[in-house]
Amino acid sequence: MITSTSNQKVKELLQFQKKSKARNQERVFIAEGSRMVGETPRKSLLKLYVSETYYNKHREELEKMKSHPEVLTDTVFAYVSDTKSPQGILAVIRQMDYRLEDILRKRTPHILVLDNLQDPGNVGTIFRTAEAAGATGILMSRDCVDIYNPKTIRSTMGAIYRMPFLYLDDLQKGIRTLKEKNIRIYAAHLKGDNSYDKEDYRRGTAFLIGNEGNGLNSDIARCADTWLRIPMEGQAESLNAAMAAGILMFEVSRQRRKG
Amino acid sequence: MITSTSNQKVKELLQFQKKSKARNQERVFIAEGSRMVGETPRKSLLKLYVSETYYNKHREELEKMKSHPEVLTDTVFAYVSDTKSPQGILAVIRQMDYRLEDILRKRTPHILVLDNLQDPGNVGTIFRTAEAAGATGILMSRDCVDIYNPKTIRSTMGAIYRMPFLYLDDLQKGIRTLKEKNIRIYAAHLKGDNSYDKEDYRRGTAFLIGNEGNGLNSDIARCADTWLRIPMEGQAESLNAAMAAGILMFEVSRQRRKG
């Protein structure tokens, strides 16, 4: 059992929690909680850590597992946990590794393109919602928040394991590739002329979603075939970025279910 | 200028930021940032505080205002601010005071009923989205998170000033009142049989939205006329509560625009 916060493994865990550089160097991330750990694909799970209390409560099932967990005292576990009330289980997991082809494989793609999104909760919620809406993949500009940030991972509610995604250095080039595949590019834009619910999303569809405060970068917005508007009442100036993405994606889902 | 964190006004501000009890005793809340403060209805704004830097930058416009602001040193302002990077302006604002009649006044109500929602960001996002979707009011069970929590206020993006709402001790009684007004009650429920996009929302409509982790309390769910399901793909078990509410509300908006 690890009893000290100056233990080398503990120091490493803390680096993985706090530093994207440390995560990316080792190509790992951390997921916490029995649900997130339970949904981890077996081949991606590198190392399991549990608190003493968790170990004593779940000893039998833990001993059946192939990857024998490392036990930390409750205090040390709380020290490495990213949450205020740790469940007592976390895993070090191998980062995903998708290519553009993984995202384009489906016959009628339904893709989100995220430009400079900065809020970890928003990006996590977009992943979770995208899975539910049947989206086929997510492209992100390099300056989006790190998907492996613990808060983002938590908000994905497991969709991180199942939703193909890719960071791109050149988002415009990525969008051009989508166009070559006959995917229609829609920018969610406050100055859009076309109401989002008047378009036909039964063909290949991609939505460009911009930064929470500033909206879409104009160079990116110019890449779109169509600028969409979500009609709003009251004095609301805009929607939360994840909410806007969710409303668009579920309109696609609604139309495709209708056939 | 206030230069000390032990100043009585500073202590009071901190209480208003941190304690719902202090807010409710004085029937006030705090909004931060030039946008939130700028949208405050004049008659509700009780007291304005700015940082020294903010004051020096905006002196002319601030001196034109009726309610002369109190200036705090930047350090003291940062101490009372709820944000990591304070903009340097906050206001003490009188709490709203709606009655059920305010929520039922419109000819075809579009109401959200929130049961035990706990996440401040979720509730704030629901207010913001509700305004944009043209909802007419929000009812909340007494055990929902405090709407006047600084994080909730921030996520409403100003909708707090414009969206009528009410906390109810007896949510079931409130729902019965809606029914008497011929408003159809829909529960958003994972076990719902009816797909949300097959219902007709052009008449009076209310949605019951449950707790983030546990969904709707069964006593509340039983009050509904219809249980709705948002069809989901993948292994997604549920949507974020604010997202589910947003998708339902924008389906109402879509149908009502179509006429």
UniProtKB/TrEMBL annotation, chains A, B:
Spell out the PANTHER family in the cross-references: RRNA METHYLTRANSFERASE 3, RRNA METHYLTRANSFERASE 3, MITOCHONDRIAL
Q: Where is the tRNA/rRNA methyltransferase SpoU type domain?
A: 111-250
Task: Determine if Transport is one of this entry's keywords.
Answer: no
Gene Ontology process terms (BP): methylation; RNA processing
What are the record keywords, sorted? Methyltransferase, Transferase
* Family membership noted in the UniProt record: Belongs to the class IV-like SAM-binding methyltransferase superfamily. RNA methyltransferase TrmH family.
Please give the name of this protein: TrmH family RNA methyltransferase
Q: Where is the MRM3-like substrate binding domain?
A: 7-91
What does the record give under GO molecular function?
RNA binding; RNA methyltransferase activity
